[in-house]
Amino acid sequence: MAPKGKRREEKRPEDARKDGGKDARRVKADESDLDAGYLSPIASPKDLSPKSIVDLLKNSRYAQLLLLLTIAGACLRLYNLTYNSLWLDEAATLDFARHSLAEICGLVAGGEFNPPLFYWIEHAMLSFGESEFVLRIIPAIAGILTIPVFYLLGREVQDRNTGLVAAALLAFSPFHLFYSQEARAYSFMLLLLSLAFLFFLRGMRSGELREWILFGIIASLSFWVHFYALVPVAILFSVAILLGLADLRKQFLSLKNAILSLLAFAILSLPLVVIAAGLFAKRTSAPPTYGIQGFEVIYQTLLQISGYNEFVMPALLILFSLGIISLLLAGEGGHASMVPS
Hints:
Elements: H1 13-18, H2 24-31, H3 50-59, H4 61-78, H5 88-97, H6 101-109, H7 117-125, H8 132-157, H9 160-171, H10 174-180, H11 186-206, H12 209-225, H13 230-246, H14 252-284, H15 295-305, H16 312-332
Helix pairs in contact: 4-8, 4-9, 5-7, 8-9, 8-10, 8-11, 11-12, 11-13, 12-14, 13-14
C-alpha cells in the first residue's frame, strides 16, 4: 500500500485479466479516479493538521472541486440574504425567539408545532440584533455546511464521484437555496438529518458502536429542531432492526448497536416525544381548516423542488428513479451493501 499523501502505482487492465478478472472492478474504479491514485493523508480526525489539509488541497482534485462547490454554494446562500423583509413565518420565529428559553418550552407545549431547539439558537442570536441578517445567518450556514456532508454521503453510498455529483446538485438547488435564506428550521434539520444518515451508513457497514451512538444523538437533535425529522429517523431505525432480526446470529452485533442507538435517541428525545404526542392528538382531533391537502401536497412539493418548472419536474423524477434502480443493481452486485460482512 502506498503511503498517505503519495500516488500509488495503478494496476493495468491487462494485469487484472491475468488475475482472472479478480481486480477488474478496482481497475475500473481507478480509471474514474480523478486523483489518479493519490491517497489522502487524512484517514481520521486524528490526522487533521494544517500540513495535511494543505497537502490534500494541493494534490486532490476531489478536495479542490468540493471546496469550489462549497464556496459557490456559500456565495449563493449569502448573496442578498437581507434583500427580502421578514415574512409571516419568519416574523413568528422572531416573536418566539424574543422569549426566554423556559418560555419557549412553554409555548411549544402550549400548541406551537415546532420544537424549541431552533428557537433557542435564534434567541441566542438576538444578542447581535433583530435584523434579517441575524435571523437568517444560522439557516444559511447550515445550508452551506450541508454541501460537504452531501459529498460524504455520496462517497459512503457509492464513491467519491457520486459524492461530487450530490454536492453539486445541492449547491445549486433552488429549493435548498430558498430555504437556506429563510429564518426557519428547515435547512438546519436537513444538515442534522444528513449527518445522522451518514453515521447510520457507517454504523451499518462497520458495526462500530461509536458510529451508532453518534447516529442516535444527531438524530435526536434533528427531532429537537423539527418534528417531521422523526419520520426518516424512524425508517432508518426500522431498517437497522429488521436487517438485524433477519439474520440474528450473523448480525447480532449490529442489532445490539442499533438498539443501543435507539435507546440513546429515546432518552434524549423523551421529553419532546411526550409534547409531540399531545400536540399531534390535539391537531388531528380537529378538521383541517386551510391549506392544500391530499395528492396536491406531494405535487406542490415536487414542483417547488423543481424550481416551479413543470418541465424540470418529470426530468428530476426520471433521474431520481434511475438513480434508485442503479443503487439497487449495485447492491445486488455487492458494491453498495450496508450490512457488514
